[in-house]
Amino acid sequence: MKVIITDQVHPELLNLLVENGISYEIDLKKDETELLKNIIDFDGMIVRNRIKIDKYFLSNSKNLKFIARYGSGMESIDLKTAEQFNIKCFNSAQGNANSVAEHITGMLLSLFHNISKSNNNLKKLIWEREQYRGIELENKKIGIIGYGNTGKSFTEKLKGFNCSIMVYDKYKNGFGNSIIKESTMIDILAQADILSLHIPLNSETEYFINDSIIDNMKNPFYLINSSRGKIVSNNSLVKGLKSKKILGACLDVLENENPEFSNIKTDDNLNYLLNCNNVLITPHIAGLSAESNLKLSKILIEKILKLK
């Protein structure tokens, strides 16, 4: 078996490929057109998000047995077309679910207890206490949208906080128990104090958080997004923050992620979010940990070997 790797991966994955008799080539520069010239030489691809694997690409790659996503998001792959050509597509989302869950738990606690703000001021030799009085997670109602790998892991982290955990998943049922309440979206809109998103980005979920959802939330609420940026409309988010319907937000992803911030001068919504005191933003790092790199590699090789 021979695979092409189109993005940076952890050396552990390369070691595991060799140990299991799988040869590989790494090409971090070729675009889709260039890759297609030699795709017939490979049985599979290991990708992240650099390459857009659309219908045209797949139509010219019918020899592929699989496309393995190092990570979780599958939005860069045309999954329906891949299925038509019997090309197996899978990710390794189990590998970074714990890292994501720990990260957003930390963000939420930092937001509630003003940890980041008070730390920044103290380093400026400003000693303030009362203005940083926090609020507690205990007894809050948390609405979790999506009970996949990260959604499930986040519920595990919340169990010790004595809060109400409500979970809605359009495609799953029967997971409720004495701690987790299996809920409808209507239940969450009516009751939640915190809304946390754990759903993939696709045509169904793009801009899931919009004016309508925000307006239909009965209570002012806090928003957590560690899924994909375009699940939340920045315009709607900013309006919600300004109206105080959204009390604060923890964002590991943004609608238009741009590492160079070249759009900062023209994007009023992004400017607002970056300067908003009740918004915490991290640069899409929730799933990045020393441990998750190893887990991602192990899970991916296990899935690849099943196809060998």
Structure report:
The chain is α/β, with parallel strands linked by helices and 308 residues long. It folds into 2 domains: 2-91, 3-Layer(aba) Sandwich (Rossmann fold); 97-281, 3-Layer(aba) Sandwich (Rossmann fold). It has helices at 11-19, 32-36, 55-59, 79-84, 97-112, 115-122, 149-158, 185-191, 211-216, 234-243, 268-274, 290-305; strands at 2-5, 23-26, 44-47, 66-69, 88-91, 141-145, 164-168, 180-182, 194-197, 221-225, 246-251, 279-281. The chain has a 7-stranded parallel beta sheet with strand order 8-7-6-9-10-11-12, with helices on both faces. The protein has a 5-stranded parallel beta sheet with strand order 2-1-3-4-5. α1 runs parallel beside α12 and α5 (97-112) packs across α7 (149-158). The model has no long low-confidence stretch (mean pLDDT 95).
Write the layout of secondary structure elements.
Layout: E1 2-5, H1 11-19, E2 23-26, H2 32-36, E3 44-47, H3 55-59, E4 66-69, H4 79-84, E5 88-91, H5 97-112, H6 115-122, E6 141-145, H7 149-158, E7 164-168, E8 180-182, H8 185-191, E9 194-197, H9 211-216, E10 221-225, H10 234-243, E11 246-251, H11 268-274, E12 279-281, H12 290-305
Parallel strand pairs: 1-2, 1-3, 3-4, 4-5, 6-7, 6-9, 7-8, 9-10, 10-11, 11-12
